[in-house]
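Per your request, structure below.
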């Protein structure tokens, strides 16, 4: 694998989790936007990787196998760990992700029940229509259904008013532990990256504790650039990457046209003085 990239995008989603584009169409969009190193990182799911890799090979686009793992941390905080350059055939990783996905349908039914209490009906069936597989259903599918029903102007507004922690449709759920996730990633030969840290609702002390634990367990990188980060946050995470000796990732977290904070491949360059995560591949 090349250790250089002019336009790496190492976090995006296809229809195999909560994205709007098929794996093949996602890769084509990335290539059309000038991406030269791409990772597909669906939520707790590896099924889109063969199609994406085959399309990338056809287009001459360097491709990285990845996945985004849902992790429960602290008392009631969900964080996400992106695994890059994994072996998608690794048995322990496959088994672990199967366990994580097993809870998605139960959580979705509980979310629908909570929304039903506040007069929003039919959400489970509506969300399922966007994904088909109960093992892959997530909050984004609920949000799309609720936008379709005229309850909010866009997906972000649904999260802000209905699905985020403390809101009527939020349901806490035990995902993988941080130690489990990093053990699976390391066993599959991958690099563990802390995803979109600017989205975590943690105090400064809690966030530092998370970084320390992540580092101690073998975490190697953080997403300094993310579609979810503003300029100030990018600068702060660049500082923390230097302080903790983390490699820096560049990641749009693209889900689909018109829905994501940033289009795939449209991120600015990494700040100076950071080690790009692709140098570890």
């Amino acid at each position: 694998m090349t250790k250089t990239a002019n336009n790496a995008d190492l976090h995006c989603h296809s229809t195999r989790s909560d994205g709007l584009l098929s794996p093949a169409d996602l890769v084509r969009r990335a290539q059309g936007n000038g991406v030269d190193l791409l990772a597909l990182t669906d939520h707790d799911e590896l099924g889109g990787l063969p199609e994406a890799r085959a399309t990338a090979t056809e287009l001459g686009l360097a491709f990285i196998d990845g996945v985004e793992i849902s992790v429960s941390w602290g008392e009631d905080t969900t964080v996400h760990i992106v695994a890059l350059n994994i072996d998608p055939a690794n048995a322990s990783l496959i088994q672990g992700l199967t366990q994580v996905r097993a809870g998605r349908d139960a959580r979705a039914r509980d979310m629908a029940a909570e929304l039903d209490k506040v007069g929003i009906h039919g959400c489970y069936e509506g969300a399922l229509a966007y994904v088909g597989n109960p093992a892959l259903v997530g909050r984004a599918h609920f949000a799309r259904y609720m936008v379709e029903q005229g309850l909010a102007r866009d997906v972000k507004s649904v999260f802000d008013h209905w699905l985020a922690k403390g809101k009527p449709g939020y349901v806490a759920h035990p995902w993988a532990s941080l130690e489990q996730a990093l053990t699976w990633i390391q066993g599959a030969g991958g690099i563990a990256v802390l995803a979109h840290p600017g989205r975590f609702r943690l105090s400064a002390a809690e966030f530092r504790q998370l970084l320390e634990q992540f580092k101690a367990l073998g975490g190697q990188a953080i997403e300094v650039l993310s579609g979810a980060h503003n300029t100030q946050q990018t600068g702060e995470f660049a500082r923390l990457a230097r302080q903790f000796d983390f490699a820096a990732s560049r990641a749009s977290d693209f889900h689909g046209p018109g829905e994501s904070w940033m289009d795939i491949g449209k991120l600015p360059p990494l700040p100076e003085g950071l080690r790009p995560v692709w140098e570890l591949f």
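The mean pLDDT is 94.

Regards,
D.
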